[in-house]
Design a protein that fits this description.
The complex is a heterodimer of chains A (110) and B (110). With 110 residues, chain A is an all-beta fold. Chain A is built from no helices and eleven strands. Chain A has strands at 4-7, 10-14, 19-25, 32-38, 44-51, 56-59, 62-67, 72-77, 86-94, 97-100, 104-109. In chain A, the strands form two sheets. In chain A, strands 2, 4, 5, 9, 10 and 11 form a six-stranded mixed beta sheet that branches. Chain A is globular. Chain B is globular and about 40 Å long. Classes of the chains: A mainly beta (110), B mainly beta (110). The A-B interface holds A 1, 4, 31-32, 34, 36, 41-46, 49, 51, 89, 91, 93, 96-103 and B 4, 33, 35, 40-45, 48, 50, 56, 58-59, 90, 92, 97-104.
Chain lengths: 110, 110
């Protein structure tokens, strides 16, 4: 069974700093990996999707990479802002199912 | 506007009283799914549906039922709710594997 781990569970950084969030998974037979953002009391918003054949995807200040063979993905956030404060989750698609990590709670301090 | 809607958003009920949480999407997506989110456990998939009349179990299906009679709707049914089903529930629909989530239903079973 696929297991997804995110480290660290919580992260606090000053505004303007670049940061990296980590995601690891145990079964490399994935179709894709998504990074989501979840604000308190809200649903999830998809940020980036990387297909299994891709190495990275970029959207604005966000860059996600995927190393399928080692079971790892990173989400790089450049020039962090207080509005980036949220919980970030990664999810892998394996077979017809999705498996989520427990998330990294990010706080960007003004 | 593309969206996934869930109702109700909040529900307090008692053990054994049957309930249904509705989910509807307006994007004509074939894939829909239900998740529960619990502290420390992350999101876990309950059921998913590849298309109308096609449903399958996720990781935690016990105590839940679903149906998919129309493409846009995917209700979650708890025939006899128990306190361990107290959780935050999310419905999602997917196209090309990118997932769109509803706002969540917070269920408390007393």
């Amino acid at each position: 069974k696929q297991e997804v781990t995110q480290i660290p569970a919580a992260l606090s950084v000053p505004e303007g700093e670049n940061l990296v969030l980590n995601c690891s998974f145990t079964d490399s037979a994935i179709y894709n990996l998504q990074w989501f953002r979840q604000d308190p009391g809200k649903g999830l918003t998809s940020l980036l999707l990387i297909q299994s054949s891709q190495r990275e995807q970029t959207s604005g200040r966000l860059n996600a990479s995927l190393d399928k063979s080692s079971g790892r993905s990173t989400l790089y956030i450049a020039a962090s802002q207080p509005g980036d404060s949220a919980t970030y989750l990664c999810a892998v698609a394996t077979g017809n199912q999705f498996y989520f990590g427990t998330g990294t709670s990010l706080t960007v301090i003004p | 506007e593309a969206q996934v809607t869930q109702n109700p958003r909040y529900l307090i009920t008692v053990t054994g009283k049957k309930l249904t949480v509705t989910c509807s999407q307006n994007m004509n997506h074939e894939y829909m799914s239900w998740y529960r989110q619990d502290p420390g456990l992350g999101l876990r998939q309950i059921y998913y549906s590849m298309n109308v009349e096609v449903t399958d179990k996720g990781d935690v299906p016990e105590g839940y039922k679903v149906s998919r009679k129309e493409k846009r709707n995917f209700p979650l049914i708890l025939e006899s709710p128990s306190p361990n089903q107290t959780s935050l529930y999310f419905c999602a629909s997917s196209l090309a594997d990118r997932s769109y989530f509803g706002p969540g239903t917070r269920l408390t079973v007393l």
